[in-house]
Amino acid sequence: MQSKRYLKTGIVALVAIGLCVWVTYRLLYPDATIHYNDFVIDSSITWLENADDGDFDICRKDIVDKDGWFDWFIKDRKSLEKIKSRKLLTRSELPGGTGGIKRYELKFDSNFSMMKHPKSRITERMIVENDGENQFKVLLADYPKVKFEGVERSSLPERDKQQITAIAAKVLKKVESRDIEFFKRSYAKYATRKNYFGWNEYWLKAAKNPKKTRELFEILDKGNPTPWKLMELGVSVPVGRTGFEAGGTEYRFSTVNNGKKENFKLLIFIERDLYQNKSAPWEFYGLWWRKLEMKQEKK
Questions:
Q1: pLDDT at 273
Q2: What average pLDDT does this structure show over 175-188?
């Protein structure tokens, strides 16, 4: 009798230990994805989870790939490493579905192990078609938006740092000579490159336009500018999709106009496309600047 009691106690203890281990593990490593009991969302999540596990042949069975996007998706997904978290951001219905089939765009807020900072995020986007019950097809899956936080500033190899600063120096000379034609040609060349799933519109809207460059020229012409002061050299980071790398240099300068001093920050962006060419060189692709408040001068 006593041995049976010991056996029961031992079994209960093992179950309790196992439960504690499972709870502790789940607290430390929660499920990467929440399921929503919705056919559209959960089918999309299952498809993404198959990609997480590297089961791309299974994913391929559910895709429509007229534009050849899936091979690019595979390269991106492999470079992101292990999924850490994924949650639904938005689901919206799109026009185009026919015969009882509806078309949706879903966006997920996701974090992957290659992004070391907890605030770093990737937006996973899917465009899918389904009948709400059985049929499910993926028309597109991509990563249109990447947010990096806490990026280390010392991870670039010295050779890349030298290449980036050399290109930035050439761009500064074009700024100093007010060579607007150089920037027009650069942006025109960039705009005619292969447009991966419409992402060029994001990149070309902001800094990469001659109007912004002309405004910089006007500031330099109106005041008495100080020499460029190199403040920071950025590391290579994914931009838009994980196959592209970008490096950036930050310069500070001041102007004095009618006795008034104003401080400015100038960023020169340089990138390379490693999917098209594994030994691709760094190239200039845009600049951005803004006026600094006086309290930021000491930075």
A1: 74
A2: 91
